[in-house]
Design a protein that fits this description.
Blueprint: H1 3-7, E1 11-16, H2 25-39, E2 43-48, H3 70-75, E3 78-84, H4 92-100, E4 109-116, H5 121-130, E5 137-138, E6 143-146, H6 164-188
Parallel strand pairs: 1-2, 1-3, 3-4, 4-5, 4-6
This protein binds flavin mononucleotide.
Flavin mononucleotide is lined by residues 18, 20, 23-25, 84-88, 115-118.
């Protein structure tokens, strides 16, 4: 194992799970991008599902080579899902992007930033049941943003309530620990990703 594999800069893909217009996801994604860019030396890839075409009828078990974002997901060391809660679960586009891919998730950590009336906790907890099937692990820490629409300034920018930034940084700390550890696992078991 080379040191570079273990110590190189991490690539984090942030998956924006709402595709509605308008959507609360916009100010929240902008906040995440600002915070993560300012605080960490990461290669950040913001993947907006609203601008990715993944038709449900073209989905294949085991992943589809034609996915326009397969390469971006494969290149990521870890994922942050920005997910709203719809009807006590995560939204359909989130399940769709998960199902469209397979090896891209394997042996990687997934963190969650949830939002909604109750902070998205039920969406997050249900996603925790999905990712082990893809050999991905979910991190304990998470960010819950209840009623984020009450925390917008006059320009529509999200102003995090007390505790939100700390939760984000605790989550990112854990995500990076897992991401570094799982790099070596991926290198050790490439067959497990087929
Ligand atoms: C179809 C639908 C169902 C929803 N169900 C819930 C819910 O069960 N629990 C909750 O806390 N919020 C619920 N909400 C509120 C959303 O979490 C909230 O509107 C959020 O801002 C949506 O994110 P978006 O605008 O980025 O899509 C629901 C919203 C929609 C559109």
């Amino acid at each position: 194992m080379t040191e570079d594999v273990l110590d190189g800069r991490l690539r984090i893909a942030v998956v924006i799970g709402s595709v509605r217009r308008p959507r609360m996801a916009d100010p929240l994604a902008a906040w995440l991008e600002r915070e993560l860019t300012a605080a960490y030396r990461l290669d950040l890839d913001m993947i907006d599902l609203a601008s990715v075409s993944l038709p449900m009828h073209e989905m294949r078990a085991g992943g589809a080579a034609v996915s326009p974002i397969a390469g971006r997901l494969a290149d990521a060391d870890a994922f942050v899902f920005l997910t709203p809660e719809y009807n006590h679960s995560f939204p359909a586009p989130v399940k769709n992007v998960i199902d469209w891919h397979f090896t891209e998730w394997a042996y990687k950590p997934v963190a969650f930033v949830g939002y909604g009336g109750s902070g998205g906790v039920r969406a997050i907890e249900q996603l925790r049941a999905v990712f082990p099937e893809l050999r991905a692990t979910t991190v304990r820490e998470s960010v819950l943003l209840p009623m984020p629409w009450e925390h917008l300034d006059a320009d529509g920018r999200f102003v995090p309530p007390p505790g939100a930034r700390q939760a984000l940084h605790a989550t990112m700390r854990e995500l990076q620990v897992w991401a570094r550890a799982l790099r070596s696992l991926r290198a050790a078991d490439p067959a497990g990703r087929e």
